[in-house]
Amino acid sequence: MAHYFHSGVCVTPKRGDLLISEPFLPDPNFERTVVLMCENNEDGSIGFILNKPSLVNLGDVFEDLDNFNKKLLVGGPVQQDSMHFIHRSLSTVDGGTRIGEGIFWGGNFEKLRILMQENRVDPADVLYFLGYSGWAPGQLDEELRENSWIVSPAATAAQVFDLDPELLWQEVLKNMGGKYRMFSNYPTDPRLN
């Protein structure tokens, strides 16, 4: 299970936490990304990038949902031929897993699809992902020791669903305060500073 040492205190990223990439992470899959942790245990870790829009709309994938011109997000580099979703309401979608307060992962997609066709779901309440971010046992531990990630505990539904993905990385860091506020203003290319 991954642990993060912050000021000498051990913090274990858990379901519902955010992983924020450090400002100059060299991996293009995770440059300036915010990942919602959905699972972190002895078998590994799974999450979804919240701020990496794809070039594909939901209606491009499901013709019967062409009224939803919402971009699918790139959830991560693993199995990008698979689709996943998170949402705000367990009562809307049966069988989802609670990730945090007002944040649920998965559930009965066919029921959700019918509700969407009938315009009974607000598009802002559901995020769809192509692929996911995954770490083998011990892999996230190593990345945390290398300071590749900053952990922000207990994501809010407002952070996940309401913030503009283009501004999410910067806003989460800014709201963490202290040195993280300073990180939020780092230019993408340090030579431009």
Can you characterise this structure?
- This protein has helices at 58-61, 109-117, 139-145, 157-162, 165-176, 178-183; strands at residues 4-6, 9-11, 18-21, 34-41, 44-49, 53-57, 71-74, 78-87, 97-100, 103-105, 126-135, 149-152.
- The chain is built from six helices and twelve strands.
- It has one domain (4-184): VC0467-like (3-Layer(aba) Sandwich).
- Strand 4 and strand 5 form a beta hairpin.
- The protein is of the alpha+beta class and 193 residues long.
Average pLDDT reading: 88
Please name the CATH architecture: 3-Layer(aba) Sandwich
Total number of helical segments?
A: 6
Structural class: alpha+beta
Number of strands: 12
Helix percentage range: 10-25%
How much beta, percentage-wise?
A: 25-35%
CATH hierarchy class name: Alpha Beta
Task: Summarize the biggest pleated sheet.
Answer: 10 strands, mixed
What's the quick description here?
The chain is α+β, with helices and mostly antiparallel strands and 193 residues long.
What attributes characterize this protein structure?
single chain; alpha+beta; VC0467-like; ten-stranded mixed β-sheet; disordered N terminus
Strand and helix layout:
Blueprint: E1 4-6, E2 9-11, E3 18-21, E4 34-41, E5 44-49, E6 53-57, H1 58-61, E7 71-74, E8 78-87, E9 97-100, E10 103-105, H2 109-117, E11 126-135, H3 139-145, E12 149-152, H4 157-162, H5 165-176, H6 178-183
Parallel strand pairs: 7-11
Antiparallel strand pairs: 1-2, 3-4, 3-12, 4-5, 5-11, 6-7, 8-10, 8-11, 9-10
